[in-house]
From TrEMBL:
Residues 138-251 form the Fe2OG dioxygenase domain. Belongs to the iron/ascorbate-dependent oxidoreductase family. Pfam families: Oxygenase-NA (PF09859). This is 2OG-Fe(II) oxygenase. It comes from the Bacteria. It comes from Variovorax terrae.
């Protein structure tokens, strides 16, 4: 039965061929960079179809796809659970990782230049993954999260080793108001020169949001300084909320 479910899910994800990459390639990446620089996040609407969202959410019950399962309450991360995919990644997850990275790497390099961080990122994700693996960061980090009533996620940063790609992408796989109530994506910023702020990131089913993983550059009279960001999820009131997290650096 599991094999049949996997085949059905993969068939839904693969149709139409190339649509995932086309939607990513035609996004307004200049606007994405502007939004990231101003807010620390940028929304890419409707990158996944509802059918693709449902199929990816269905992976949660296919244990063979994952290397580990985290019950958040055990580690004081909040309430809910998430699972890290194992290699080889499901085709759709690997394709999203490969297709998003080349658009984000040039922005990441400009950010590192502004913040005087020495690391620069190669043009392809395969090259960057090789850098991570050579440094001992060999465990895949893309993950699938599930929240149910009263679940939430504490504010955090997803840092897994010395090599940290400064962006990650989160896909909302359920529809707010229909499939769940509450459970908003939260982003907070701690700016050493200004009062802190918080944003509720508006998402619909199939939307993706690019988030700054740890810092963003903020211009000052003397150049740029670093402002720290964290993200989390507010308490879910009812229903179920699934998200796919695409993190580009691997873990030790």
């Amino acid at each position: 039965m599991s094999a049949l479910l996997s085949a059905s899910a993969d068939a839904e994800i693969h149709a139409p061929s190339g649509a995932l990459e086309s939607g990513i390639d035609t996004a307004d990446w200049r606007a994405v960079e502007d939004d990231l620089g101003r807010d620390g996040f940028a929304v890419l609407p409707a990158l996944l179809t509802p059918q693709q969202c449902n199929a990816i959410a269905g992976y949660f019950f296919e244990e063979e796809r994952f290397r580990s399962r985290i019950v958040m309450e055990r580690y004081a991360f909040g309430r809910g659970e998430y699972k890290y995919f194992s290699y080889p990644l499901p085709d759709v997850v690997g394709r999203l990782r490969q297709s998003l990275y080349p658009h984000l790497a040039p922005i990441a390099n400009r950010w590192h230049t502004a913040m005087k961080i020495n690391e620069r990122f190669p043009a392809t994700h395969d090259e960057f993954r090789a850098v991570c693996h050579a440094a001992g960061q060999q465990r895949p980090t893309p993950l699938l999260l599930r929240y149910q009533a009263n679940d939430y996620c504490c504010l955090h940063q997803d840092l897994y080793g010395d090599h940290v790609f400064p962006f990650q992408v989160i896909f909302l796989l359920n529809e707010p108001g229909r499939d769940f109530q509450g459970g908003e994506l939260l982003l907070t910023e701690s700016n050493p020169k200004q009062p802190g702020r918080a944003d509720v990131v508006p998402l619909r089913q199939g939307d993706a949001v690019v988030l700054a993983v740890n810092h963003r550059p903020v211009r000052s009279a003397r150049g740029f300084y670093r402002s720290s960001l964290r993200h989390g999820v507010s308490r879910l009131h009812s229903g179920q909320r699934h998200t796919l997290g695409v993190i580009f650096h691997d873990a030790r």
